[in-house]
Amino acid sequence: MDKKIVLLIGGPGSGKTTVLNGLEKLGYTCYPEISREVTAEAQKSGIDQLFLKEPLLFSELLLKGRIKQFKNALTENDEIVFIDRGIPDVVAYLHYIGNDYPELFSAAGKEHTYSKIFILPPWEEIYISDNERYESFEQAQIIHTHLVETYKSYGYDLIEVPKADLDTRINFILSNL
């Protein structure tokens, strides 16, 4: 059995978590986005937005967490594992803010490869800000561009998920595995 590690990527507020939750309800193994967890932990320590205050530290924590998710996905019994965001997202966000980063970030993206990448485009009608999501919709669009550029630089073909109701989005993903 070939393991398929499938990513859902896209800018903030594009519906990744909703789609992932829908896939999980159908019985698929799904790993959530970990940046909310890292942000929430920093907020408990009094740092409102760790990514804005210490972007490299935040990115290092994300990189470690995403590598751990990738390795854990390999040990799952299920043939398909869906993950909300991948290792190259860390590099894309650092490009977005114009930050330099150690080579190990790029190397990690080359070393850990995914089977399929589904990208959810910016969608203003569903975009919502909250405690962990500080970006405006305009910033989400710019981040989307950085994600596309970064993943393509790793050689991935991105499959764009249509802006549609949840069932249509899920069926599109499942039919394109």
UniProtKB/TrEMBL annotation:
Keyword Isomerase listed: no
Signal peptide (residue range): none
Keyword field: ATP-binding, Nucleotide-binding
Annotated ranges, domain NadR/Ttd14 AAA: 6-169
Source domain of life: Bacteria
A single MF term (Gene Ontology): ATP binding
Protein name from the UniProt record: ATP-binding protein
Species whose genome carries this gene: Paenimyroides ceti
Organism classification: Bacteria, Pseudomonadati, Bacteroidota, Flavobacteriia, Flavobacteriales
